Amino acid sequence: MLRLVTLTSVLALSAAAAMAEDITVGVSPGEHAEIMEEVAKVAAPKGLNIEVVEFSDYVVPNQALNDGDLNANSFQHRPYLENQIKDRGFDLVEVGTTITTPMGVYSEKLKDIADLPDGANVGIPNDPTNGGRALLILQDLGLIKLAEGTGLVPTPLDVTENAKNLAFLELDAAQLPRSLADTDISIINTNYALDAGLNPKTDAIATEKADSPYVNIIVVKNGDQDQPWVKQLVEAYHSPEIKAFIDEKYDGSVITSW
Known about the structure:
It is found in: Membrane. Belongs to the NlpA lipoprotein family. The protein is of the alpha/beta class. It is built from eight helices and 14 strands. It has helices at about 5-20, 30-45, 60-65, 80-90, 130-140, 190-195, 230-235, 240-250, and strands at about 20-25, 50-55, 70-75, 90-95, 100, 105, 120-125, 145, 160, 165-170, 185-190, 205, 215-220, 255.
């Protein structure tokens, strides 16, 4: 079949090529990396070339973005960013929401959270926001009580009631799946659970409430939020193709925000 190429279409293709832009986006392993690879496929035909860079922890992606080594990152929830800005002085801003990944309680020893013994060892993330998030889950489960006024970032020092005398083992979030042999339960972020082969729907013995405030976000340096590529990135992420990919691949363990 002969394809008719008009001057208008040639000019449109030339304009798209001229406007093509390359950006680098930092992600954490698991669903954030997997989804951003799909976002890159959606964005490429529209003139945005995304290089996806994985980081093995939660600290470096914000530092790298603040230093100008990344154009954007997509790995963290809003309370974590707010805490990082407060503690480290980063000049970063949110430009779009992505997904919610409810934290889960995992165990190699227990099948039911009700069977948690007195004096149990509990693994939680050692960063303030995710550690606080884990403690809030334990409070929701009725296992501890926290001091009022601690908001979203309580620490073990804020535990005012601990009827089972739980002992908290604070570890790097990425190490928690490997802690299961040494703890009675560990509270693990979904990306690290998935990366370790854990299924949040079938392997978690308890899960964070669905109305959690911990929606994940796309972040850029302050001053870049009005750049054309930012709009392209967010639109590619919020596309029907990405929503369908997430719904099919994660089967409800990862929830879209749009």
